[in-house]
Amino acid sequence: MKIYNLVIVGAGGRGRGMASLAIKSKRAKIAAVAETNTERRNLFQKEFGLPKNNCYQDYRTFLKSDLKIDGVFVTTTPNHHSAITCACLEKSIPVFLEKPMAINLKDAAKIVKVAKETGTRLQVGFNCRYAPFFVKMKEIVSSGGLGEILSLEWKEVLGPHHWSTYCRYPSYNKKDVIGSWLLEKCCHDLDLMNWLVESPCHRVASFGSRSYFNPRDNLPKYCTDNCPIENECIFSAFKFHPELKENSEKLPKFYTLCVYNSGSDLIDHQSAILEYSNGVTATFSLIPLIQEERSSRFVYICGTKASLKGDWSKNRIRLFPHEGKEEIVCDPDLSEEREHGGGDPKIVSAFLDWLDDPGKLPKTTEKEGWEAMLVGCGIDLALREHKVVDLDIYRNLNSPVWVQTHR
Question: Against a cut of 0.85, is the pTM above it?
């Protein structure tokens, strides 16, 4: 069995997680890391025992080296995805690209073009397609158990802790870093809907705003600055890290940013309507608050033979036949559940399988990544310009009108 030499570009939590899973597979080793942040780079070096000479500040340095590289994991913030991915593809190095592909259609199209022109393998990190919950849902739909799909209702709902990261973390809280909240958080959902419907999305409309998490003059910038509502605030950093209340200097400063005064320019709720080329309609909502232990995705699919209801956090899938039979329990086996519903180990294995056999395509390549980007950018354009957006205008990789989709 071949052991592959992998390079991680972006040594944050996602990069470390992917590196750990690759090593755990016993099919790969980490040959190098590229990370601009010195502290993160040094931590990665220590955790994975890398030689200092194989720890780079600039990814371009390892591309110029004589280092033997079988594959690269790009796990930086999305605003850097296009330049890094294209540089690796142009060197004929297979790439695992974390979602979303990019922060706008222009950058995503560049990635797709370079992948096609070079013929280099590119996998996009839609790990939910590998999670047992959504695999089971796909099996039900593909088996004809629902009949023909007529419509979908899809919600992603975040708990206070999860939502607060999109206010506080500099890796998440600005459009110029992640493109939009929808692209960063919900490109998974858009990809899953595309996968289930099995038809190109044709038209979209959207509504939403940042209407609640806006600056408040009566509150300080940080939870630690004698905030008058800290005790009752469900977003207090000390509710998530109670052990540090008496020793707050141990928290990174941005952890304690006030969710109202964080400076984030992301919207705080959004809904969309989607129409697919085969006539299926869908509604999607991104909601920032739910009083549950875990954030979740709620799915309702209406078919001509039956309806399906799913709750991801509870691993619950129920089928309701229209002919009057009792509900059918279709809960997937989660005996091996790990991060992201068990999808992470499987998506890493899929990348290594592809390195073994170029004919063994993973579930998500640049084709699926592009379609999710197209839907997400179209929804955001519809929101900004208060109109229904025809995605077919933008689907062509040589479209001259992409600039409209990102402002």
Answer: yes
